[in-house]
Amino acid sequence: MFKRSLALVALIGALAGIALAEEKANGDKPDKKDELQRKAPSLDELKTVVQPMLETLDLTAEQKRKAAGVITGDAWKATLEAFGKKRGEEIFRSSHKTVPEVMPTIMMPRMMAYNMQKTMKERMARRAGPPTPKEIAAIRAATQKRMRAKIAPSIMGNVEALAAKRAEELLLDKKVLVRVLAENVSEAALTDKQTEKFDKTLADAGYPAELIHGPDPILEKRIYKMLETLADELLAVESSDKACKVLADKRVEEPLRTIAKEYAFRTGSEVSLRFLPVAEIDALVQKKKAQCDVVLDIGKEKGSKSPVGELPGATRVAWKHPTGEPVWAAVLTDHPDVAEFVRFVGGPTGHRLWSESKAGFTITSGKTHAEAFEWVAENRVKHTYPMTAMRMLREIGGIREGICIDIGCGPGNLDIELAKRSKFKIIGLDIDPDM
């Protein structure tokens, strides 16, 4: 495989190397060589850059003769063929060195996130505690094995294509060809001191040696981008079949994306969101072509019940669109995550995120964030504050007096429970003045 790929790049380099050859005399249809010939800078263009620099070096008559000998059409053709083959092999080898160097920084963060979500979901299904390091390592190893099996063939093919394309581009790049011509002249006609001065002049003019030697930075960036895209695509495929598919009214997009993201973070379950105008959703629901696990929408007119609201088991949650219309949610399949997702959307965290939405959604009991938070605290999480207060007092080692500052206190529910159980002077601070 490696030798075959080298041969492929070398062949492309050789084809590009004869870009200055004359067109076929027999009138055949122009081929790859003819196309490259039309695109490549002419030898005369390159000479206009190199010759003025040579004139500053005080060359002897013999040096001028030698320099002229390597700036002929035939000599230039041979030079390009040799450079195309050599540089093609160099960048192909460097590209294969780049892949193992950058793969850990690309794949590992994505794989770690995927592994943790998978682990959390499996543990929650069994109502188990936090995963052990051994369990996490086992899932990571299994995922890595699957990823290697899927990603390796794609990487090899893509790297070959990128290296071949870059090898061709180099032989059409004027800066690169100027540097190639200049180095050929240096080897044939210049002394070491003249070569040093010539190199500096070239570098100052924007023709550094790095253009034709060492790793190619442009190719490295392309390989990195290719690996990022490939890794994301493969991980998306890995998890897409398991995702809970949600179809929702475009008017709920802003808050629902935030809620779904929080749900995925807390549960490790994937959620796939799709948003359409309400008329299209209603039509799909009525024709039974929604193709999703959960559907959410709002009535098209004030006071009207949406088609989703007419579905069996549809739920009207405790938050409203700014028009005052409720949002309906209905479960369409037996996907294992749908019931939990709908509960989360209408639960305490869902209420808070809806009330914070820029779209202006409000909870039934109040329109301000403070009122919305108070409704959640009173109707959803009131029972947790006494337990939280007792746990906090236990964890601070018996301290019951002094000053306690609660930053982000909300309406002060937790502070009230702490005050009941201690002699603290409690100061509550919150960024929202309504709190």
Brief synopsis:
With 435 residues, this protein is α/β, with parallel strands linked by helices. Helix content is 60%, strand content 10%. The strands form two sheets. Strands 2-1-3-5-4-6 form a six-stranded mixed beta sheet. A two-stranded parallel ribbon has the order 7-8.
Structural class: alpha/beta
How many strands, which pairing sense, and closed or not: the largest β-sheet?
6 strands, mixed
Give the tally of β-strands.
8
So how many helices?
Answer: 16
Report helical residue fraction. Answer: 55-70%
Uncertain segments of ≥5 residues (pLDDT<50)? Answer: 1-30
* The number of domains: 3
The gross shape turns out to be elongated
CA-to-CA gap between the ends? 68 Å
What number is the mean pLDDT? 77
- Spatial arrangement of strands, main beta sheet: 2-1-3-5-4-6
Radius of gyration: 34 Å
Estimated share of beta-strand residues? 5-15%
Give me the strand/helix succession: HHHHHHHHHEHEHEEEHHEHHEHE
Write the layout of secondary structure elements.
Layout: H1 2-17, H2 32-39, H3 43-54, H4 61-69, H5 73-125, H6 133-170, H7 174-189, H8 192-204, H9 217-240, E1 244-249, H10 253-267, E2 271-276, H11 278-286, E3 294-298, E4 315-320, E5 326-331, H12 338-345, H13 348-356, E6 362-363, H14 369-379, H15 384-395, E7 401-407, H16 413-420, E8 423-429
Parallel strand pairs: 1-2, 1-3, 7-8
Antiparallel strand pairs: 3-5, 4-5, 4-6
Helix pairs in contact: 1-5, 1-6, 3-7, 4-7, 5-6, 5-7, 5-9, 5-10, 6-9, 7-8, 10-13, 13-14, 15-16
Structure keywords:
single chain, 435 residues, alpha/beta, D-Maltodextrin-Binding Protein, domain 2, 6-stranded mixed β-sheet, two-stranded parallel ribbon
